[in-house]
Structure formats: structure tokens, C-alpha cells
């Protein structure tokens, strides 16, 4: 789960990590008391969950109250298109208004998890404000990587490697060490999977300040962080995806027309690939999971049926934990309740498959039942040609 | 022959009295696995379907000489359960649980490196040596004992699909392992490939990967350098949109890394037989095995 910049900065404040003074607003009318309170210059920043906001016109430095008004008017409500949002862009529902700083230079700092080596890695560079991938490609010697075994945690020598590596003055080196200790504690205590500050500003007063903040929290850990779970932005999600998540389904909406219901994430991906190979386009990824009940399948089914793009449905189930008879009952029940009128191809294998197929056949519904994936591909091609 | 589990495996189940634990214990026993103990804190002294239940793993191991554990506990307790099994000296630990926090697994993985135990998973279907021992939630009847194929996969049901096709094609399996769909897991592809290469009965291996991370690329490099037996590779997720987690916590294309296309390219560069259409996996394996025997 990604946090908005302003949420990440609030989290930083609770760990006593320096960030610029700022306020979040959702209406332009809220701006003028903030100008009085924070003074000028200010920075007005669009709050959307995507990188590249500056290049997309979502960040503006303003010197006067009029400029602040203009910037806020322009940014609030805009469809911000960045390299990461896709062509449609994302609607800006709130802006962060922050005090401008006297910037002496900009550094880069991030913490992440190396999944292959099971380590926490701190990456830092003298070239703040640039995409770290570009720095890594052009001047890799300007990047310092510090690997931390989570069993020993952050040690003094890690911090010395960092300060000497960046050739920081003794004073700044100490400040940096304090900052990184706090960030490491935040990273571990809040179950972060990524944390990036770009730029980490050194002010002309030789103070550090996190001018940007990107934080991603491990979704699996949210059960122990109710305060972080509450930060999930409902505006950022496709409404169907949010609905599916609330009932415990793994659903991702795509651009195509063939809806899929599959048990297991790997098989669901392979099923999407199969649809594409048959010349059609998958409308979604939907994993009904291991412990799915008839009721959950029915709900998943309803989600597919409320996607107007879906013209046909492919159900691919390999029964392991989820038995085919359970699935079959779920499908039949959902089809009857929703008045299903789309062509459906069902491919089932595994535990209680005969019982599952019997339930489908005797349901009186217009289902095409196939037993192999190759047969399924032929039926999918037929479905595509029908359109 | 087989790898990691066989008829001498003495299994204990952590979380045996839970709904999932009880159901899958009975399924494993029905298949023929030797379940010698269960562990549920506070339920020691009871027995469940004739299996004695203990409060701690150490007690259970002392009393029953269990050498393998299947973990079916909720995600909040999974890391604790794995470390308890490690400290009790359990040789093989299979963690089925999905949704274990990554931070927990960071600690587990580094602790494991100091200890002789082997961990499979988490977020996996488990491991089965057909006809001898099933530790996990896979449907037993689709498997065929006796080899010649080894199967290793990051997925669950996709593995069942692969195994089913092998069985339909008349290709039995020595051992099938689901290593798990999480970003941080115990046993990896290379560990399994190494064991299959050393196992006399295994004549070829099916490797089932998916988007995310670098494990398939590393496996491909290892295969090219070390593996004499044929490997047939499949990758799920060619159509997965970047930046989205496809069900499995570990299945994500981020910053252009971990794409299915890159993994398939690595397979081809390592001269691994690539299966492009899942429906043709069985027939492709038949051909590959026939070619390797001539």
C-alpha cells in the first residue's frame, strides 16, 4: 500500500524526522489562512499516488499570494498525467502547501528490501532530485549502497560508511546519522517495503529536510498497523477493485473483454496469457483463492458482471483446497441470482471434478464445459469470433 | 528416489486443531503420509483423529521423533511457528500460510541461514513425493509415483495443472515442490534443481516461474552451468500489467524488472526448453524426455 506524500510526512513527523512545514487542502478557499500562517515562498504539490509529478505540472514554486492562488486553482481537480499514471492520468483531490526552503544542495536517500538476499538496503547519492535509475546508469560511482542484515540491524559502521561515502562534513555527517537511525526504525516498525526521499535537502543553514517522501507499506502487515491501514485512499482505487478487496478477492481490472475467474494467482496469470494467445483480451485478473466459499465466488461473479466491458466469461478452476463442487454451486447460484446472459466457458479439473461438472450440467444454464486448456483456447477463439 | 521427503518422513502439524489444519492433516494421512504429532498451544495432551497433540514443537519432537513439520497457522503466528520448529531441530519445515509479513520473513530467512533446517514456503502448496509422502494442500490423486519428472514451481494451482498434464501424458513425478509466491522464501529454485540433478530417479525437471524478482534468471544461469538433465520452463504473467501485484506478494513487475519476457529470454539463452502454451506442456515434456533418452 502506497502512502500519499503528506501522509508519509506525517508519519515522518511522528518519528521526529525533519520535513518542511506544510498543510493539506482539498478546497481553494482553505488556502489563504495557510499563506498567512506559513508565509512565502510556498510550494504547491499535487497529492496523487504516482511519481514524476513535477514533470507533469503537479508541483509549483510560488512567490506571491496570487501565484499561490493560481497554482492551487490549476492543480486541484486537474487530471495529472505523469510517466507512471498512464494516459488517462489521475485526478488531483488534494494539494500539499509547504514552506519553501533555502536549498544549498540535494541528496538522495532510500531504504528498500533486497528480496533475493533478504537484506535491508540503504541507497544514497549526492545527486538528489534525479531519478536514481539514471544516476545508477550514468554515474554508478556516485551511489552508495549499504546492506544491513536485519538480525543485527543498523550499526555505527553502516552510518560511517554512509557519511564518509558522501564526503559529508562532520556536523552534517552526525545529522545524517541521526536521520538514518530514525528512518531505519520507522522502516522496520511500520513494515515498509520501500521508502524514498528524493530530494533530501541540505539547507543553507546546514539542516537536513525531507522535501519529498514516498513510502510503501507491506500490505500483509496491515493487520498490526490499523492506523496505517486507515490511510488507504479510496479515491485512488478502481471502485470494483476496492469492492473486491473488501470481500477478500484478488481482483485487478484490465482493458479487455473476457472476464476470468480462476483459483490461484499463478494459474490466473497463466489463464490471462492463454486468453491473449487465443486472440482475445483478458478483462481482469481474479483469484478466488484457496479458502473461497460459494458466497465469495458469487460475489466475485457479480463484480465481473458489473464490468460493462465484459462480453464473455472464462472460468478456469483446478480444484485443490477449493473443490470443484463448491465452485460449481457458487457459479450456479450467482448465475441464477444475477440473471446471467453472457456466454460462459467453464474448465474444471481436480478434486470432486465429476460432481462439479454434474452440478453445472444439471443447472440448466448455458455453459460450455471443457476439460483441457487446449479445448478452452478453441472455445475462447470462437467467443472472440462471435463478437 | 526422491528429494527432501520420502516414506521415512515423520510429520508433525503446527496448527493441527484449526479448521485448515485438521482438514489437511486428514488429507495427508489419507494419502499415506506418516503424521506422528500435532502442535497447538494449550491443547497438549489431547488427540485429534488419533494423532497426539502437544503444546510445543520440542515436546512433540522428543516424544515422536518427528523430522518434518507442516505449518498451517494464521499469518500473524507463522514466523514464530517457523522459528520454533527451527529451534526444535526439525529438518524440513513446510509453511503453507499466505500473507506472512515480509519483515518477519527477513528475520526468519537470516536465522535459517545459521541453522541446518530447510524451509519450504511460505505461501506455498507444499511438497509431495507421489506414493510416499504428501506435506501440503495439493490434491493427491493427480500425482503419479515413480518419476521420471521433478517439478518445482512458485505457484499452487498452476503446479497442479502441470502435474496433471504430466500424469495424463504418462510421465510420473519423483517429487513436486511449490516453493511459494512470496518475495522472501526458504528453499529456492536452485536448491531444488541441485537436489533433482543429484537424484538418480529424476530424469528431467519442469520449472514453473512467474513475474517478479530475479529467481528464474538466476536459476537459468545455474542450469546452464551445472545441469545435465533436461529442464522444461514455463513462465506465467506475460500479460500482467506493470506495477501491480498479481495475487502473490512476490509477483510484481517493478521499474521494468521481473518481466515474463526477460525470464523467457534468460531461459532461451540458457538453452532451456520453453513451454509457450500451457495447454501443450504435457506433450512438450514427452518430446523433450524422448529426445534426451536417445
From TrEMBL, chain A:
Where along the chain is substrate bound?
Answer: 263, 320-322
Do you know which InterPro entries this protein is assigned to?
ATP-grasp, ATP-grasp_succ-CoA_synth-type, ATP_grasp_subdomain_1, Succ-CoA_synthase_bsu_CS, SUCC_ACL_C, Succ_CoA_ligase-like_bsu, Succinyl-CoA_synth-like
- What pathway does this protein act in? Carbohydrate metabolism; tricarboxylic acid cycle; succinate from succinyl-CoA (ligase route): step 1/1
Q: Which residues form a coiled coil?
A: none
| Reactions that this protein is recorded to catalyse | succinate + ATP + CoA = succinyl-CoA + ADP + phosphate; GTP + succinate + CoA = succinyl-CoA + GDP + phosphate
Question: Which GO MF term does the entry hold, naming one?
Answer: succinate-CoA ligase (ADP-forming) activity
Gene Ontology biological-process entries:
succinyl-CoA metabolic process; tricarboxylic acid cycle
Where, in this chain's numbering, is ATP bound?
45, 52-54, 98, 101, 106
Protein family per UniProt: Belongs to the succinate/malate CoA ligase beta subunit family.
Q: Quote the protein name from its UniProt record.
A: Succinate--CoA ligase [ADP-forming] subunit beta
Q: Which gene encodes it?
A: sucC
From TrEMBL, chain B:
Residues annotated for CoA binding in this entry: 17-20, 43, 96-98
Protein's UniProt keywords contain Ligase: yes
Please give the GO cellular component terms listed in this UniProt entry. succinate-CoA ligase complex (ADP-forming)
Q: Which InterPro entries match?
A: Cit_synth/succinyl-CoA_lig_AS (IPR017440), Citrt_syn/SCS-alpha_CS (IPR033847), CoA-bd (IPR003781), CoA_lig_alpha (IPR005810), NAD(P)-bd_dom_sf (IPR036291), SUCC_ACL_C (IPR005811), Succinyl-CoA_synth-like (IPR016102)
Which UniProt keywords are given for this protein, alphabetically ordered?
Answer: Ligase, Nucleotide-binding, Tricarboxylic acid cycle
What are its E.C. numbers?
6.2.1.5
What residues does the CoA-binding domain cover?
4-100
Nucleotide-binding: is it a keyword of this entry? Answer: yes
Instruction: Give the record's pathway.
Output: Carbohydrate metabolism; tricarboxylic acid cycle; succinate from succinyl-CoA (ligase route): step 1/1
Q: Name one GO biological process term.
A: tricarboxylic acid cycle
The highest taxon in the source lineage is: Bacteria
Q: Which Pfam family is an annotated match for this chain, by its short name?
A: Ligase_CoA
Q: Which residues bind substrate?
A: 160
Active site (UniProt): 248 (tele-phosphohistidine intermediate)
What is known about its subunit structure?
A: Heterotetramer of two alpha and two beta subunits.
Q: Which NCBIfam families match?
A: PRK05678.1, sucCoAalpha
Query: What family does the database annotate?
Result: Belongs to the succinate/malate CoA ligase alpha subunit family.
Protein name, per record:
Succinate--CoA ligase [ADP-forming] subunit alpha
Q: Which organism is it from?
A: Candidatus Desulfatifera sulfidica
Specify the taxonomic lineage.
Answer: Bacteria, Pseudomonadati, Thermodesulfobacteriota, Desulfobulbia, Desulfobulbales
